[in-house]
Design goal:
CATH architecture of one domain: 3-layer Sandwich
Strand content: 25-35%
Shape: globular
Number of strands: 11
Distance between the termini: 49 Å
Number of helices: 2
Radius of gyration: 18 Å
Order of helices and strands: HEEEEHEEEEEEE
CATH topology of one domain: Rieske Iron-sulfur Protein
CATH superfamily of one domain: Rieske [2Fe-2S] iron-sulphur domain
Length: 174
């Protein structure tokens, strides 16, 4: 029989079980509106053409677990004219809908600004600007990198995750 201290050390050494609500978006996850009380998978038609962005969470479809346990899972969705999407952005889009991390890589604020005329995303905290038509690249501002993209696909008419984020979401302390 193990002494109590040995049992505690043994349990502490085991890795914590992953919490599905905290896990990053996975291939096949559906996207649901950020502010919805009951999760309903979004379709491309639910995203207004030309903006503004719609905020969403990924949801594991089998158990309907919404991955809202980490704010790093918050996604922004935009529906743009597919003809205006550049290179890899066109490949990552689904019916003109592109997805990016909603968390600015500069200081971790939510990228809630939308400049309709130039079709540019803006972080209101320090005015970093991003081009959603071209891989979320940084146009100007203090951020040091592009917004991480989340490749999408259509699954049974719904917006679904095709692949994980292209880079680590969240800000980079510096």
């Amino acid at each position: 029989m193990l002494p109590a201290a040995g049992l505690g050390a043994s349990l502490a050494a085991q890795p914590a079980a992953a919490q599905p609500a905290n896990e990053r978006p996975k291939e096949g996850d559906l996207l649901v509106r950020f502010d919805s009380a009951s999760p309903v998978a979004l379709e491309p038609k639910d995203i207004p053409v030309g903006g503004p962005q719609v905020f969403a969470w990924p949801m594991e479809p089998a158990g309907s677990v919404v991955r809202r346990g980490s704010r790093l899972n918050k996604v922004l969705l935009l529906r743009l004219d597919p003809a205006t999407l550049v290179g890899e952005t066109r490949e990552r889009a689904a019916d003109g809908v592109v997805a990016y991390s909603a968390v600015c890589p500069h200081a971790g604020c939510d990228v809630i600004g939308w400049l309709a005329e130039p079709k540019i995303l803006e972080c209101p905290c320090h005015s970093s600007h991003y081009n959603p038509r071209d891989a979320g690249v940084l146009i100007d501002g203090p951020a040091s990198r592009a917004l991480p993209a989340l490749p999408l696909k259509i699954a049974d008419g719904k917006l679904a995750v095709a692949k994980p984020f292209t880079s680590r979401p969240g800000f980079t302390p510096g």
